[in-house]
Amino acid sequence: MSSFGIGLSALRASQLAMGTVGQNLANANTPGYHRQVVQFGDRPPDFIGGLEIGTGVQVEDIHRQRSDLLEKAVTQNTADAAGTAAALDASRQIEAEFTPGSGTLDALLENFFNNLQQLASQPADLAQRRVVLGSAAALAGQFNTVAGDLDRMRDGLDQQIGQAVADANSLAAQIAEQNRLIQAQEARGAQANDARDQRDQLVNQLAQLVDVRTVEQDGQLTVLAAGVPLVVGGTSGTLAFAKDSQGNATVTVPGSAQAQNVTGGKLAGLLQVRNQTLGDFRGRLDALAQELARRVDGVQAAGLGLSGPLTFAPGTRAVSSATIPLAQAGTALPVQAGTLYVSVTNQATGQRTLTAVNLDPAAQSLRQVAAALSAVPNLQAVVNPQNNTLQILAAPGFAFDFAGRLPTQPAASALTGTTVPTLGGVYTGPANDTYTFRVVGSGTVGVTPGLQLQVLNGAGSPVASLNVGPGYTPGTSLQAANGVTVALAAGTANAGDSFTTPVVAQPDTAGLLPALGLGSFFTGSTASTLAVNPDLLNNPQLLAASRTGDSGDNTNLQAMVNLRDGRFLAGGTQTFGDFYAAMVGDIGTQVKQLDQRQTTQQALGQSLAAQQQSVSGVDPNEELVNLMQYQRSFQAAAKYIDVVNTTLNDLFSIIGVTTG
Q: What pTM does this model have?
């Protein structure tokens, strides 16, 4: 009778093997499915009369065809590729904001300077002034647009990061559930191949979001994500999206502010672009806008419009406090220790004074600066308590400017003769200086032979020697040096008599005017806040084209045009155009590198997938061959049972005849 058991075991084994083949064929295209292979073994034998009698065949295992080393490589490549794809997609969005073309920042910046250049040839043309201001408004508007796009991109990345964290937590919970299911099935002695396939698939889905490391022990999988034990057996933890004190997006664990080091998956790519790439380009955009505002405002404030000096200048940039030193008060643009030169003009007589106001932001508050400016005769500076801005007003009948114009008459305290000096012209020297005019010889101006006026610079070196004796007509202007003129009225001059005057190339060496927005071209100081001063838009005559107030003077406009070639950025090595071009080049290079990395990772992924398929994939042709093999085994077992049955029937027949 044991022969029936042998045959039945063969039938059951072959039937189970054919079922396994059917499972393989049914899941040939199922993602994450691993081919299953039946492993046969002898059933324990019987011992009869000292002889070992076989009892048939049994299925010892249905084994998943799986390479742990290859699976880990696939998971790692999945994480790396997902991180690169996320970074590439976001970086391409940044690149699109800076790609040169019509209407982009570089084109509008060039257009602004070109329009300034055209205005310089006809500085009094109101129509061209409006064109300049219109191009400036378009430039500022584009700064606002790009800044807004980048800020919205940052918010969008935050949403993606938050969603990716939530998805990772959901997958962790599902992996833990699979761990519990596998444990329960295998505790009953059942196979859990399908549950293991589903668990592997969930791990790879998690790897698309975050870097994953796995350790399996006794059928239970521990999953480390971002360095955190996210799944331990049947228990799952959680990750959290947070922002640190600098505003950077981070991934943490609940109850801790410690940012986890995410090195792979979509989260790694999003965090890299959000915190590094996007933050870098957003900061560089602000730096470009700030430096443009600082330089253009500095030139605008140091010139005069068609209407001449000002009687009132309201500041447009505030500080956080009017009572603490400016260096600590958060000025919109940088301020340094230096000197501000203020010209005050008597509108009735045309007489002009030039006063130097020394500034030290490390020691002076806004109120103290206001007090220092109020010490200038016929000038008053007050702090607006509502917004901590500075306002400057001239006394009735007076006007002021910051062009550094020469005083009409220098201080003559060292003159003992009766002549009166008069200064004129526009200083064209490269740096601020002090000129001293010293009389050589004594006598009557325009009469005494050998009477001269020597001009010395601040270092005491002679820069000119002017004849004021015979041949000189008193009151006639003489060219002293660097555009400065001097005239001596009729009278006497004594040897050693002297007078001095500051000559100013840079009226605001402290940078106070642009920092506080006094007489500014722009308002705002960042890419998102930059705008053309509404006072200029309403009254284009205020555009400071000159340093003298003459309608045909374009010296200040030319200084503004020259800013185009000034190397103010990147440590004094780049112009505005160079700086923008570097931004375009850097984001383009980054996109190219990410694209190349993606190509490499895709090639590696295809290779790993092919290797994985060769180990774990289902080949329908191979499975059909196996099916035919198991079918023959089944048929053979059935034939064997039939033969055994026939033999037994014959035996029973013989026994029955004999006994009858």
A: 0.86
